[in-house]
Amino acid sequence: MIQAHYNGESVFSNSNEAFSLYEKSRLGEKIGGRIEYLHVEALFLIGERKMEVFYGKKKLGFNELIAKIKRKDKGVEGKLVVFSDLRKKGYIVKTALKFGAEFRVYERGVKPGEDHAKWIVYVVRENEQLKWHDFAGKNRIAHSTKKNLLVAIVDEERDISYYEVEWKKL
């Protein structure tokens, strides 16, 4: 079990278990002698019973941690649903903040650094409006970085519909 800490901003661990899991499955990022986790990675690992998170000396349960994260990221629940689904399907999922999307996703068997991600993922709640201008911009970024855009629409029952956008030359 990974022992991790939350400092109000990030979740991190310097345990052997964290480094071992990173090497095996690429969960987290090696930064400054420790493994730092995206919020959805930490929530996913807590849900899978592979991580305990402490805030100071207090152990945070899943609901306590997600409540703290939701104060800063209202969309964390939708992102977690998509992240968990993709991880359980065998994909490596990393942040795509610099691409203006939630995640970049690697084909099964491909590790970050060995090859480029195939998709950037934009998570949308079913009742949200996606403006054409935003969609076009995200698609242009995906194309310019040689990735396909994957729009993940999460409904009220937490079911996900994926729509892949790719460019075709005619």
Description of the molecule:
The chain has 170 residues and is of the alpha+beta class. The chain folds into 2 domains: 2-70, MutS, DNA mismatch repair protein, domain I; 76-165, Trna Endonuclease, Chain: A, domain 1, CATH 3.40.1350. The protein has helices at residues 16-25, 39-47, 62-70, 76-88, 132-144, and strands at 2-6, 11-13, 29-31, 34-37, 51-55, 58-60, 92-95, 103-106, 119-125, 148-154, 160-165. Helix 5 links the parallel strand 9 and strand 10. Helix 2 crosses helix 4. The mean pLDDT is 90.
Number of domains: 2
Q: What is the terminal separation in angstroms? A: 52 Å
CATH topology assignment of the largest domain: Trna Endonuclease, Chain: A, domain 1
**Poorly predicted runs:** none
Total number of β-strand segments?
Answer: 11
CATH C-level class of the largest domain? Alpha Beta
How would the blueprint of this fold be written?
Layout: E1 2-6, E2 11-13, H1 16-25, E3 29-31, E4 34-37, H2 39-47, E5 51-55, E6 58-60, H3 62-70, H4 76-88, E7 92-95, E8 103-106, E9 119-125, H5 132-144, E10 148-154, E11 160-165
Parallel strand pairs: 1-5, 9-10
Antiparallel strand pairs: 1-2, 2-4, 3-4, 5-6, 7-8, 8-9, 10-11
